[in-house]
Write a structure and sequence with these properties.
CATH class of chain B: Mainly Alpha
Strand content of chain B: under 5%
CATH class of one domain in chain A: Alpha Beta
Radius of gyration of chain B: 21 Å
CATH architecture of one domain in chain A: 3-Layer(aba) Sandwich
CATH architecture of chain B: Orthogonal Bundle
Distance between the termini of chain B: 43 Å
Radius of gyration of chain A: 18 Å
Strand content of chain A: 15-25%
Order of helices and strands of chain B: HHHHHHHHH
Number of strands of chain B: 0
CATH topology of one domain in chain A: Rossmann fold
Mean pLDDT of chain A: 87
CATH superfamily of one domain in chain A: P-loop containing nucleotide triphosphate hydrolases
Order of helices and strands of chain A: EEEHEEHEHHHEHEHEEHH
Low-confidence stretches of chain B: 222-227
Largest sheet of chain B: none
Distance between the termini of chain A: 35 Å
Mean pLDDT of chain B: 81
Oligomer: heterotrimer
CATH superfamily of chain B: MetI-like
Chains: A alpha/beta (about 250), B mainly alpha (about 230), C mainly alpha (about 210)
Low-confidence stretches of chain A: none
Amino acid sequence: MHMLEVKDIHKSYGSYEVLKGVSFSVEKEETKVIIGTSGTGKSTLLKCINQLDPPDKGEVWLEGEELTSPSADLNRIRQKIGFVFQDFNLFNHLTAMQNVSIGLEKVKKMEKGKAREKAIEELKKVGLEKQADQYPAQLSGGQKQRVGIARALAMDPAIILFDEPTSALDPELIGDVLEVMKNLAGKVAMLIVTHEMGFARNVADEIIFMEGGHIIECGSPDQMFNNACKARTREFLGKISTLYGKE
Amino acid sequence: MILLGIDSVTNNLPFLFEGLGITIELTLISVVLASIFGIVLAMGRAYGKQPLPFLIYVYEKIFRGLPLLVIFFLIYFGLSQQGIHIKAFYAAVIGLVLHSTAYQIQIYRSAIHAIPEGQKTAAMSLGMSRLKTIYYIILPQVLRLSIPGWSNEFTILLKDSSIAFSIGVFELMARGDAINSMNPQGILYVLLFIAFLYFILVFSINRGLNYLEKRYKISGYEVTAVR
Amino acid sequence: MTLLLTFVAISVGFAIGLLLALGRVYGNKIISYSCIAYLEIFRGTPLLVQLFIIYYGLPAVGIIFTPITAALIGLSLNSGAYQAEYLRGSIQAIPANQMIAGRTLGMTRFQSIRSIILPQALRISIPAWSNELIYLFKYTSIVVYIQVRDLTFQAKDIATQSSRYLETFLIVALIYLLFTYIFSEIVDQVEKHVRIPGIGLSQTIVKRNA
């Protein structure tokens, strides 16, 4: 049984079909990266997975439970899926630590003291235990995103979805966030939508290339970068490599 | 000659202060009730299913379009004609609450709209139900953002309480009028004194709430609600 | 009568408000503080109290007004205070560069204000101003208590005589609502007419609440 299974997802906005039948799976502790041109529905796909924006057709299964079924207890299942947003979406009225602990307290019903402890632990993992009592407005973009990751991690999810986590960051700050993500590889399953080719190349177990609402090709980084089957894949990666420089 | 009449104030101090007490009581009760209804209805309008938002919209339109005086008359005199007799004080509270709630809904709505959609999305991704999201994430921020508009509304309620005089509530203004009938001589001083009392109250409320606003400010948000 | 009071009061109030707003923003310390004092006083006390002072209180020092005059004065002074605040907000919302640009062209302060700042500020204030119009319209009902025969006064008369309170006031309520609606529409039309693209706060949508 795959840990996460996505079967034939279709999604349209009005008359415009964004996802035209996407299927793949993710195994436990696997790191998969989705790349592709903008607007191909990569972000939409992530939102379809945790049902924030349910797909029109298709199924999503997590650890043997079907999320797309009408009787699914989404609130409970969502605890198993972490989500890291492009715009961070930290809770503005809470400190960094409270941002991480609130899920534990209110959703997992953890006792306050324990929740605090765990929150600080998670913040340590992302290198921000000193900023625990600061508010989002006082943090830099990179720090905010790391708090976002800590917040997702704290829930002990089976998989974390990353929606272009570094796209809103200044170049110098991207490195810190990627570093944190690199350290997570192999410890928790990750499905990442990103343009960071260096990261994809070095950290991903598998790369999925999407375009026009379809998966064009997928394979290991080595395969994809050096020996891609489809011409389009080679074209895309070729251009991107030139742009970003081979790492 | 002009100073003649200051004794109208000094002789009647206890009388006037009693009126002040009623004014404050009237204002506080109305403010609390109107705030609660205001928040609930604002949430209802933002998150509820039709026809709830529409009904609330209609409510707002009606009670923002009517003079407080007319509302009071309808409640106090109109209802008693139908055999329902309410004590003037309660009628005044009902009138003030109906009127103020309509305006407060607007204040809370602006605050709700000022909160980015992402806050809700993030909360739900953590597994929070809609209700929890609203209670733990949206509401705390809404309350903080509404402080300026709310404090404005508070002082307006205080001033509007003077209109309760029209249905016989024996608050501060009514007492001023009573003194006028009994002893028209010192009326100017009495009125000035009454104005002074209101002014002090309004001023303190403003200062107090200003402090509150600064303390609970969330940086990065700008909301101005104008009455 | 109600309409008369409303329109006169809002016009005079506008004039007063404009002077106060300009005085507060551009005046020197003395003018500025006097304006602020005026504003604090008139916004810090109930309209009813102000009307009473003017009508019942002033005769004690020999100044007597007819009910209508007293009402007009009171409403204008009060409205002026609130309008000053809206106008001040609008004036301050205009980037300082506009004034600087005007001055570099060689205009005097006065000319800049008149030709550059005001046209923009006035357009920005329209939503708030329409609020004030409707507000004033409703609050004219208070003049009942200084013996002015406005709509509410007449209604009260009729109601007391006929003992049909509910019906009378419901009708009155409908009349107020109707006019409120009409005023909103008219102001909306005016706003569309004088609209200049790019001028107008995004909060315009929030302020328009009548």
